[in-house]
Each structure stands twice: as C-alpha cells, then as structure tokens.
Amino acid sequence: MNLPTDFVTYTKPLLGEQWKSFVEALDGESPTSIRINHSKMTSGKLSNQVSWCDNGFYLDKRPQFTFDPLFHAGGYYVQEASSMFIARVLKQYASPSMKVLDLCAAPGGKSTLIADFLDEHSLLVSNEVIRSRANILSENITKWGNPNTIVTNNDPSRIGKLKGFFDIVLVDAPCSGEGMFRKDEGAVAEWSLENVRLCKERQQRILADVWPALRSGGVLIYSTCTYNLEENEQNVRWICDELGADILSVDIDEEWEISSSLIEGVTAYRFFPHKMNGEGFFCAVLRKKGDEENGVRKIKDKDNRSKINLETEYKNLILNSDRFTFYPRNDKWFAFPSCLYNYLQTIKSELNILSEGICLGEFKGKDFVPEQSLALSNFLNREAFVTLEVDWKTAISYLRKEALVFTDQPKGYILLTYRNIPLGFVKNIGNRANNLYPQEWRIRSSNVPDQVENII
C-alpha cells in the first residue's frame, strides 16, 4: 500500500517497533465479520466468534451478501469486528429503562448493536444529519425489527435542545478514516494533515452541540476509525477539560490484543490490524460531570388518540398489542410501545423524524395495505396472514421487485418467508401477485448467481 508521506512521518513514531508489522497488515486481506440478529435467527454452524461481542462472527471469505435473502430480512448485519467493541461497553454500562442516542448513526451497524442491548422499556434514537444516509439508516433499523426505536435527521445542535434527555450518547464521529485504509483505497487518497485538523475541529463542534442532551452522570461513548492523537486522545482530553467529564474504564481480556491509550492520563482502547483481527478503531468512555436538572418538559399528545381509533382487527396484526399505542400519521397507522410514547412526543416536538416504532400500513378505500415495517417487525403476528415459504430463486425475484405468480394460493395479502424468516408482503390477485417490496430497497444488480450460497 502506498501510504501518504505525511501519514508515515506522523504515525511511525507512534508505533515504534510495531511499524513494520502494521504496514504488512495493511497490505493483507481485510477480515469479514457479521453480527447475528438473535431475535430472528441463530448463528447456525458459525464458530469463529468475535471475542468482545457474543453475536459477532468472522467468515472465512466475503460472500455476495446482496444475494442472501436473510441479509435483506434483517437476520444479520455485516459489521467490522473492531467496531463491535461497543457491545463490550454496553455490557458494562447499559441498564434497564435507558434512553440512548446514536448521534452519527448511518448506516446503522452500531444502532442495531445497541438495539440488542436495550430492554423493552428503553428507547433508542438513531440520528444522521445527511438525508440520503439517514434513509439508509432508517431502512436498516426497520429490518432489525425492534419497535422501541426512532430514526431522526437533524444537526447535533438541534438535538442539544433536548436538555438532559439521554442516559447514553454514542458519538462515532466522522473522521479522517485512517483505520479504513485497508478496506477503502479512497480513504488513502483523501487523507491529509489538513483533513485531520478539520476533522478534529468538526468532532469538537459535534460534541459541544450534543453535550447538553446528555444528562448529568450520563455516559458518552466516543469512537473513531482513525489512529492519530488529534482526533482521539487529544479530543478525549478536550471533552474532560472543556465539557466536564471523567474518563471510565472498560473490562477487557489481555488475550484480545487491544492496545491502550498513547497518551498518559487518558484511558482509551485502540485496535490495530497487526495485533487483532479487525480494522483500525478507537474508543473512549466518559461520564458527564455536573448536577444540573435533568429531563425535558412533557409534551401533550397531538395525535388525538381519543378521537381516532384503530379497529382491534388491525391492532392484532402485532403480538402483545395491549403494550402498544396506535395512532395515524400522514395517512399511515403506527404502533409504538406505550411505556415510551411520551418520549416519542418529546422527540417529535424538537426533531425531524424519519421513522418510528412499527408502521403497520394504510387504508386505501376499505383495504388495509400492510407495510414492510410490519413484515420485518419482531412483533409481527404471523397468524394474522396467509404465509408462504419460498425458495431462494423466488426470494431473490421478490427482492428484485419482479412480477410473481402464485396461482395455487388464495387471493389477498400473503406474507412471504425464506427459511422461516419474513421477507415481506405480496397481494395475490389470481393471475399474478402485486409485489409490495419497497422500490427503493430492491436489489438492483442483475448479476444473479446461478445457485444459492448459504452464508449461515
């Protein structure tokens, strides 16, 4: 790999005798890892586990994930192993009934990981400031199937108006991307010392803007995928000195070969590709000082639930419907956990929401058209629909949004499953079936393999 001269000059002294091994690792193959969604499936015969994440596994090779229906159904997420270290942090610091913010969340790997750690009384808000990336985030959160989630599209300064609202804030900050050199040649070409400086300044602005939203005593998880001191340890010191925080430690095993901080007095966790099976990553955990009053004002329900109600028939499309509040928005009906509904109203009062809870569907005349969000929800009541198990070829045709024919099936809405995991709905009208898979989610590649490759 042809590394930038300034990068070598800066980074080589940090690594010392390890520099040669580091460069050799960058010239090697990047490992492939996935994280299983145990709400939908098991890990099967996968055995090469990521040490710091119970649901994470390495694969022997990188398959064509695009043509695995289980990937599109939210059965697993393709995630870099080092970044799964957030699971270890949450295992130590997450607790019941929490409100968690993933600030720079797209495409959704860390958000889906957080969702696995939260109980039914906890709320996850996943935010992305760039609209196109926020739509991808919303898609991945929907596929994961948890109803206690909200996806927003806002600048951190706007979220900062929710003073003292969150118990945990994850800032996986936009960075110079040095840790991705092995995976992304573009990151090498775009790197410069000036970009490092700009990233550091942007990271500090982001942290300062969102800091008011973290309650006193709350936990900040700060991470990057870069190596330099400016964006990492120096920013951790800045958080302590300028914002007011104490640094926390995370319990780790020496066998994991996670490196310690490169600055004395700063506790942090560094991942180097020559020492462990993953890409470059940095993580620090801090607790907010202060004794200011936490929480935000309660917002009056604007959905007029007492005036408009959804018929029981449609409420029963989800399991445990008595735990949910049902309400219409923009002609569609939603279900959101009742214990978190007031929090949803608070979020709506300040932020731009892209998706929330379970979108059940909408009425078109007397017909209730079910949404993809319902099909992929972990609370879907399968008994409410005719269900049809399809083979791989049919599943791929469905995911490509191609025309389908099911002449041996009854007319009406049919839930398609693959290996017993829901894919989505079709409306069977006899001579053909209307494919209801979202147009923007469809598989666009026409290079469909001749046979199925079972990843799990």
Write the layout of secondary structure elements.
Blueprint: H1 5-15, H2 19-26, E1 32-36, E2 56-59, H3 69-72, E3 76-78, H4 86-93, E4 99-102, H5 109-117, E5 123-127, H6 131-144, E6 149-152, H7 156-159, E7 166-172, H8 185-190, H9 193-210, E8 214-224, H10 233-244, E9 245-248, E10 259-260, E11 269-271, E12 281-288, H11 312-315, E13 324-329, E14 332-337, H12 341-350, E15 353-356, E16 358-364, E17 367-370, H13 372-376, E18 386-389, H14 392-399, E19 412-418, E20 421-428, E21 433-435
Parallel strand pairs: 4-5, 4-7, 5-6, 7-8, 18-19
Antiparallel strand pairs: 1-2, 1-3, 6-15, 8-12, 9-12, 10-11, 11-12, 13-14, 14-16, 16-17, 19-20, 20-21
Helix pairs in contact: 4-5, 9-10
Give the structure's gist in a few sentences.
With 456 residues, this protein is an alpha+beta fold. 27% of the residues lie in helices and 24% in strands. Strands 4, 5, 6, 7, 8, 9, 10, 11, 12 and 15 form a ten-stranded mixed beta sheet that branches.
Which class do the helix and strand fractions yield? alpha+beta
Average of the residue pLDDT scores? 95
The whole-angstrom Rg is 23 Å
Give the biggest beta sheet: 10 strands, mixed
Strand content: 15-25%
Q: Count up the helices.
A: 14
Shape, please? globular
Low-confidence stretches: none
Please tally the β strands and state the result: 21
Distance between the termini: 33 Å
Percent of residues in helices comes to: 25-40%
